[in-house]
Amino acid sequence: METVGSREEERLFLCVLCMLATLLPAASSCPPPCLCDSDRLLVDCGGRGLSSLPPLHLLPPGSRSLLLANNKLASLGASAFANLSSLEELDLSNNYLDNLPAGLFRDMSNLTRLTLHNNSLTVMDRDLFQGIGALQSLDLSLNGLSSVPLGLLDELQSLRWLSLAGNRLHGLERAAFEPLANLQHLELGHNPWECDCNLRDFKHWMEWLLYRGGKVDAVECTLPKDLRGRDIRGVPVEMFNYCLQLEDENGGGGEGSRSGQGVPPCSKNALNPSGATPITDNTDDSSSNARGGEAPSDCVRTRYRPVSVRRAIGTVVIAGVVCGIVCIMMVAAAAYGCIYASLMAKYQRELKKRQPLMGDGDGDGDDREDKQISSVA
Hints:
- The chain crosses the membrane at residues 312-345.
- The protein has helices at 2-28, 174-177, 200-211, 241-249, 255-259, 285-290, 307-376, and strands spanning 35-37, 42-44, 65-67, 89-91, 113-115, 137-139, 161-163, 185-187, 193-194, 215-216, 221-223.
- The protein is an alpha/beta fold.
- The protein has a nine-stranded mixed sheet with strand order 1-2-3-4-5-6-7-8-10, with helices on one face. Strands 9-11 form a two-stranded parallel sheet.
- The chain starts with a helix and ends with a helix.
């Protein structure tokens, strides 16, 4: 009997151990020192003074939000967010991040909101946002960005909200933003914008964004001096006409393109933000050619003809036609007035000629009346 009772106790003890073993991972499935909310599937690691990431492999399965704001994170490894495909929101704001490796968010295919507000980012790799095509909101405000490289936003075709406010942007390339077909809200304020030829094409893109119902905050010019403090959206497009002359003087159109000798145009992806020289990557020639990283040495960059300039030319033509018609009508009115005045002058002269004859007739009538009166008497 004792052996049977001891065996039952052993079985009961093993069962308890198995239950504890199953409950232990669930109880400890939250990376310290974070707080996990199982109802909202949220992991809050913000404001913990972290200088490195917590053990993210301990995140509860199916977590959707990871908050790492207000910490001391200065760098992240290339695989820091590996195997986190369930995350939909990532907040890295108010840290000291100054360089993010390419493909950092590659495994976060369901990410829809990414916040990098108030960090120390000065440059970004063009492949930084690779793999997050579902992203809808991106906050890059209050960093030290001086440019947005071509190709950085190519995969973000679902992006609807973008903030680049509070950086060091002087100008932007239109080609870098053309893939954002669903963008609705763009913040560009508090940047030292130089409203010159380098910003002309981007101005046309902003006008297109506003035309289709998007919103853009104030883009105030700092240079040149005569435009300082003005919103570039209110600057007439005719003020940028000199840019076309500069392109012609600098050979922007190219003799080959004018004569139609078949000189190939330069690829947009092969030009750096200044549009002058090809981008050189630290890869071999085959990979760069596959990505379109090099342009032919004899290529010619085709000159962009903005729609607003064509509209302005059309407006000038229509105004010229209207002015011509008005001038013709004025000439016709003047001719009519001259003819009328000459006819009236001729009529007045005829009246003056007839007045003496009318006077003689009156005198004869008076004599006849006097003779009649005398005869009656």
